Amino acid sequence: MGRVSIGGRNMLTQCLRQLLMAAIACQMSVDTVIGEARAQAVQPAETRPRARDIGVAPGVLRPGALNAITDVDGVRVGHVTLVEGSDIRTGVTVILPHGGNLFQNKVPAGFAVGNGFGKFAGATQVEELGEIETPIVLTNTLSVAEGIAGLVEWTLQLAGNEQVRSVNAVVGETNDGFLNDIRARRVTKADVIAAIQMASAGPVAEGCIGAGTGTRAFDWKGGIGTSSRILPKSMGGYTVGVLVQTNYSGVLKVVGAPVGQELGRYYLREAEQAYQSGGSIIVIIATDAPLSDRNLRRLARRAFIGVGNTGSSMSNGSGDYALAFATAEAVRRTPDRRSGATIIEDLPNDKISPLFQAVAEATEEAVYNAMLQATSTTGVDDHRLEALPLDRLKEILARHGIGTPTK
User: Fold this and answer.
1) What is the pTM (predicted TM-score) of this model?
2) Can you tell me the distance from the alpha carbon of 217 to that of 252, in angstroms, rounded to the nearest whole number?
3) pLDDT tens for residues 323-332?
């Protein structure tokens, strides 16, 4: 059996609790679960910083207490990580807008496409109806079907859904085939259900975890990253949280510093690279601001400002998608509100611009966190991606006047 894990702290009690939950969904024996928990608890992990630990703090707004998508009240994140032998490097990451029955209490949502070379399940109904009715699953390109199957099974078994006969499962993907034997299709619907069951509020594990286990960024190791921003009270005090699955390329910049060029690793460095650049990024955005689906779509579009700030040009082969949802109780599409005409709270257009700034900043920082937290990884066919070299990065940032740790 390979390693099945959820992002968290390296503590035996937490690993054991989480893996026992996974046993139900994955049909693992208790002995196996205990062994897995011990292994995770004792394995030394490479300590790597987040962006603010090395003075990288994009923008002017402050982050939330966790600097994570879970700073938005009610949002939960879960990971299942699959590392098996020398060739399986993949997983599942799930985001739950709230802890209730999402099918019955849908949340408004907006969807945006930077470059559409990808397979984002459920997108057309989100665009048409402006709402989400399942958790959001991120995984690899050839496991979208398993993501759908897991979400459908999870939704159908919830109390209150006994008469449900149509489910719009929302699944995003990036292609981790450089490090992962993607054709093995190792992800199962049980992995998806386990990730949902283990999803929690609080700190979000980043880097080589869940759907970021086998991904890359700018030809370095990529992964899962997250960040948040809080508006001043005078602007509503709303929170915007972002989670990214990075797997794209370009010319890496870190708060404007030409890191990719100075490290000698960047798109178009060699002529033969001109038509090879690809990859993808998925940006999931949560906010407690009472936004309509129309303004959530506008918010999602601004995520690509943050992606561009990191050095992406959204190439032909890239699947660049952003999905934003609002968690405010006042905008949830409950059974009562969907039964007839109703009054829904709606932040007016003239109050939206600070949220646009927040999502651009948080997206940029989430990408940096994904890369900084990721560790060097070897996978299928002995392919290897190195982690972004911290000493070299700090030297480059210092030359450009960046580098005082900040919270």
Assistant:
1) 0.90
2) 9
3) 999 999 999 9
